[in-house]
Amino acid sequence: MMEKLRLGVFELTDCGGCALNLLFLYEKFFDVLEFYEITEFHMATSIKEKGPLDIALVTGTVSTQRDLDLLREARNRAKYLIALGTCATHGSLQASVEGRIRDRLERVYGTRANPMKALESKPVTDYVPVDYALPGCPYDKEELFQVLMEIAKGVEPVRKDYPVCLECKLNEYECVFLKRNIPCLGPVTYGGCNAPCVRSGLGCIGCRGPLPGANLPGHVEVLRSLGLDDEEIARKLRTFARWEP
Amino acid sequence: MIIEIGEFTRVEGNGRAEVIVEDGEVRKVKLKIIEGPRFFELLTLGRHFYDVPDLEARICAICYLAHSTASVMAIERAFDVEVPEEIQLLRELGLLGEFLESHALHLYLLAMPDLFGYPDAIRMATRHGELVREGLAIKAFGNYIRELIGGREIHGINVKPGGFGRYPSVRELETIERRSESLIRFARRAASTFASQEPMGAKAELFVATDGYLFGDELVASDGERFHYTEIEEHSLEYSFAKQSLYRGKPFFVGALARLIIKGDQLTPIARKLLEEHWEKLSTGYVTYNNLAQAIELVYALERVAEIARTLLDRGIQGENVPIEVREGEGIGYVEAPRGVLVHHYRIDSGGRVTFSNIITPTAFNHAMIELSLFEEAKRRYGELPEMEFVQRLEEVVRAFDPCISCSVHVVRL
Ligand code: SF4
Ligand code: SF4
Fold first, then answer.
1. Which of A112, A222, B46, B337 supports an S-S bond with B342, CB 3.0-4.6 Å?
2. 3-class DSSP string for B219-265
3. Nearest in space to B156 (alpha carbons), one of A202, A169, A149, A147
4. Residue A241, SS3?
5. B59–A15: do the CB atoms touch at under 8 Å?
6. How large a percentage of chain B has pLDDT more than 70?
7. Can you say which residues of B are annotated as belonging to the binding site?
8. Cα four-point dihedral sign A48, A54, A59, A64
9. Are A53 and A77 in contact (CB under 8 A)?
10. From the list A33, A45, A115, which residue is nearest B10 (CB)?
11. Is the CB of A78 inside a 6 Å radius of any atom of ligand 1?
């Protein structure tokens, strides 16, 4: 029998969704276990083996010194590191809050003291080189399954580089913008989720982060034409990524 | 001397504890929430109300629908919008799906390995594969409902002020009715499994819940008082990113055990029978019986889900949203998240922007109670158990609260 790959899951500051989503693979999770041995995954197991790893999945943003230490440790121990979810790849919500950290601490906790060593929230990709970035808030679990299977077979996974829009077309979803004048970030957002929000008749809110090379100025015009003011547009765009329109 | 309990495992988020021992006696326990701050209250300020529920959903993945629903309810109250029964029933359905998903995750994958002496459910599955698979079946069903009502298994955006993006179809409701009935047997087995667990931690003396089973207009305490959450005092700690809450100067408990103790009379038939059967244990107030209480709620949720599906099928779905007229206002949404009372409170200006937001999560309400439970269990066991087992035992106490640490780190008024 072939040797299983050693996999660790490291959760930095986040909502837990990207770690949880792995468990939502259900029966397929057992398929993953055919190829991988999970040596640490703090949400799911009390086992913590410190050895070298073949793969580290890192979720969440670096928001404290503890997060940064843990991230560096994961990077040092792993051959292949996947930044998993929009927190890890783009910063997601907590990184989009404006203002300096001490001011924010004061507004929320009533003190500027920072004994827990909070840092400005930033994505994992700002601190260490990553081998693969899989965005999504949360990422699509089928996509992660594919990626893990490809790596187990020695194939380098390919990153999706088309907008959500394309997936609406493939699924034949009615375009919410053209048909119902609903603001939608689908044309400028990384695809790969299969457009579930548009399936519900709602606009994409951009949870997979900005697609590089998309026609952003054009899309801002479109949003303006729906009556949104510039501040609102900027906030919509900046929800999941620090993205300057 | 300080005994450090390193990062808790098999809980959501990052937390630790310190047991402070002097002269051979446990003097204090500090529960430290070390998850980084996430500033959700700041994040929502200035945002258009329509976007807010989708942002708040991201506070927590395990109970995202509780957050979006509480958020939507607060917004509707601010605008004086009443939704028809159909929309309320569908929201209830979604929340019940979330109970199934969340309780099953906690009971089968996080807590049950303790009962059988395994470090996790993966290893437990080698001997008790049947149980793990039953748990996964319930969890998957809960998520099916979450996806249907919420739009996605995690962080869907289908729950909106005034209604939904998409409404379920007749076929989907039929599936729900059929599948829920076939799962009740599994949930009953979970209840008998957890009924054998030893009592640990503190005996809670005061419980708090919303007045309806899953949501309501105000809070009720086990002493019969009705009140608004503002009666609960919060204070910051220097060793934790989460605040602690006290009601009338005392720690209190929110969650499944609190709901059963306060609202047991609202349960469905099989769940009510289970409650009676285990009442002697549950009424002692030992916090570890929260596990048993969650198992009984699995049965409740499955029965109630079938009831709601039936009702909706009988009367047919209209699928119409209530229009919203924007004006200045203020509203509070009270929802029972799987882990207990969840509060969202906003003020909205005449342009529809949020100017004030306050969120208090169940784990923040339970913070003081968790600390007290650790203290009592530590006093009871210190010197009696070898250190490894001592620490494991304390972790087991923490797990019974099913704490959601990510949620707990933003509990503020702005
Ligand atoms: S990317 Fe989204 S789902 Fe994933 S951890 Fe961050 S907030 Fe949660
Ligand atoms: S449609 Fe947009 S908001 Fe919805 S999951 Fe996809 S990227 Fe995220």
1. B337
2. EEECCCCEECHHHCEEECCCCCCCCEEEECCECCECCHHHHHHHHHH
3. A202
4. strand
5. yes
6. 95
7. 41, 60, 63, 359, 404, 407, 410
8. positive
9. yes
10. A45
11. no
- Strand B219-221 and strand B226-227: the pairing is antiparallel
Yes or no: say if B99 and B183 are a contact pair by the CB < 8 Å rule: no
* Three-state DSSP state, A110: coil
Ligand 2: which residues within 6 Å by Cβ?
A 164, 189, 193, 195-198, 204-208
A91 in ligand 1 pocket by Cβ < 6 Å? no
Best CA proximity match to A43, nearest among B364, B279, B183, B110: B110
Count Cβ atoms below 10 Å from residue A92 Cβ, excluding itself.
31
pTM of the model: 0.94
Structure tokens at B412: 């503020």
Residue B37 touches partner A, C-beta closer than 8 Å: yes
Name the average pLDDT for chain B: 91
Q: β-pairing, A132-134 with A78-84?
A: parallel
CA–CA separation, A161 vs A166, rounded Å?
Answer: 10
Sheet holding B2-5, edge to edge: B2-5, B15-22, B25-33
- Annotation: CATH topology of B2-408: Cytochrome-c3 Hydrogenase; chain B (1.10.645)
Strand partners for B203: B286
Domain A5-152 has CATH 3.20.20.70: no
Cβ count within 10 A of residue B228: 13
Rounded Cα distance between A195 and A201, Å, is 10
Residues in chain B, total: 414
Q: CA-to-CA distance for B62 and B60, rounded, in angstroms? A: 6
| Rounded CA Rg of chain A | 19
A48 touches chain B (CB under 8 A): yes
- B267/B264 Cα distance (integer angstroms): 6
d(CA B124, CA B253): 30
Tell me the average confidence (pLDDT) per consecutive run of 10 residues in chain B, 414 residues long.
Answer: 81 78 90 74 88 93 95 98 97 98 94 90 89 95 98 97 97 96 96 94 95 96 94 76 81 97 97 98 95 98 98 96 96 97 96 92 89 92 88 88 66 34
Instruction: Using the mean position of ligand 1's atoms as its centre, give its distance from the Cα of residue B230 in Å.
Output: 30
Ligand nearest to the CA of A133: 1
CB atoms within 10 A of CB B233: 12
| Nearest-10 Cα torsion for A6, B395, B294, B125 | 30
Map out the domains of chain A as residue ranges. 5-152, 164-237
- Chain A partners within 8 Å of B48 (Cβ): 232
